[in-house]
């Protein structure tokens, strides 16, 4: 179990990554998949793309490929202000990436997850559409108090 410094249960630990952007992977009590950095922020599973040049407007989650792929729809991501999960899950709880052309969009920028800086980019990578979700409805407290604690 992963808990924050206030004792709030964040979720069951299912993995961990140690590196420049270390994080703990959890499954929350509401069965959302989240990667939590040790500073309490969500770590995104992939890049956030935007159709604007200034990283404003709705974000799209990168798929990492130009081929269609699937990902668990209850995967949590954040742009630093708002929290999202993948939209339009199928009956198995998976969302499919979409070609930008099919969505009628063209990616123009990417948000650097570490610094939050907006960088111009052109890519043909498929993307996942996202829907807004609150931390509370995804099984997390409104704010995560550090340091984090891993319990057996």
How would you portray this structure in words?
With 152 residues, the chain is an all-beta fold. 3% of the residues lie in helices and 35% in strands. It contains 1 helix and 15 strands, in the order ββββββββββαβββββ. A 5-stranded antiparallel β-sheet has the order 4-3-2-1-15, with no helix packed on it. The longest helix is centred in the C-terminal third of the chain and has 4 residues. The N and C termini lie close together (6 Å).
Key phrases:
single chain, 152 residues, mainly beta, five-stranded antiparallel sheet, 1 helix, 15 strands, 35% strand
The best one-word shape is: globular
Q: List the uncertain runs.
A: none
Question: Kindly state the mean pLDDT as a whole number?
Answer: 95
Biggest sheet strand line-up:
4-3-2-1-15
Distance between the termini: 6 Å
Q: Which percent range fits the helix content?
A: under 10%
Rg for CA atoms: 15 Å
Can you count the helices? 1
Largest sheet: number of strands, sense, barrel closure = 5 strands, antiparallel
In brief, what are we looking at here?
With 152 residues, this protein is mostly beta strands. It has one helix at 100-103; strands spanning 2-3, 9-17, 23-27, 33-37, 48-50, 60-62, 70-72, 76-78, 83-86, 94-96, 109-111, 118-120, 127-128, 130-132, 149-150.
